[in-house]
């Protein structure tokens, strides 16, 4: 593989803006690696957590970021059989079919630049074979990256983690990108009623459009009592927490303390542990953390794309705001401000 240069968003220091600069590819692909030209990349809460070092000191700086994308395969390394040059692929962080390679190592300003098994905030990327899945879809391409994380996570949280049954009530705490698609997954799965909770009214407006019967604005609200009031005094069957905020995690557990299921999707800060009484866990209350909704990419991505094409899972109802790679920091700032839906980097700009 000839050495090639490309533009990428780089995290050089924690809690600092990303640097968009020229990066050099590895000299050749290793066993199990795939070279992909990105078309679109979503920005997920996980990237904000990486920038903020929410899990603790970052040992891999400087490094690339991003874990949901759409692109075209340019080259494949040894042991790759499930994708070929010219294939359109979804890039995802959950491991799927194929060989798992070593992470790629790039060069930037004559130093080592780290990456994981998948990164997507760049014009080109070298990913592990089991982090890309072939896709053939008539959906709008700017929505397809969501199949790499947000949409598959939401569907897996409702279908696998929560095991939602027809007519069960669902509360979604946090209606950002994953939260809105969780509302949609609950609607598509027969959840009723669905309640969306957020601190941003614009997000709640979209939650109502995507199937929430009721919404609650956190500001000046007693969220616990307001949720029970909507449900006629009966606790919810399922609560999905997407923010990772300590108070919302504790609220989720409190809401289901009489035999409901709380699914924790948002990743909390390492220095802000939640506290709760464990007694309800002995009496059929369930609280569990979700790892990407247990997604099986090679199965779930084409299946969810087919449902979206038939409008049974309304992926295209999620608002998407496009930015060029050069404006990635503006996109991140907008995500932090509570924008509805998803910020997507358009590599074609």
Please describe the topology of this protein.
Elements: E1 5-11, E2 19-24, E3 33-42, H1 45-52, E4 63-64, E5 69-76, E6 88-91, E7 106-108, E8 111-113, E9 124-128, E10 132-134, H2 150-161, E11 170-173, H3 177-188, E12 194-198, H4 201-209, E13 214-217, H5 223-230, E14 238-241, H6 246-255, E15 261-264, E16 286-289, H7 297-309, E17 320-323, H8 328-336, E18 342-346
Helix pairs in contact: 2-3
Question: What value does the average pLDDT take?
Answer: 96
Helix content: 10-25%
Compute the separation of the termini in Å: 26 Å
Rough outline: globular
Structural class: alpha/beta
In total, the number of strands is 18
Please tally the helical runs, counting DSSP H or I stretches of 4 or more residues. 8
Which percent band covers the strand fraction?
15-25%
- Gyration radius over CA: 20 Å
The biggest beta sheet is recorded as: 7 strands, mixed
**Would you list the SSEs in sequence order as H and E?**
EEEHEEEEEEEHEHEHEHEHEEHEHE
Uncertain segments of ≥5 residues (pLDDT<50)?
none
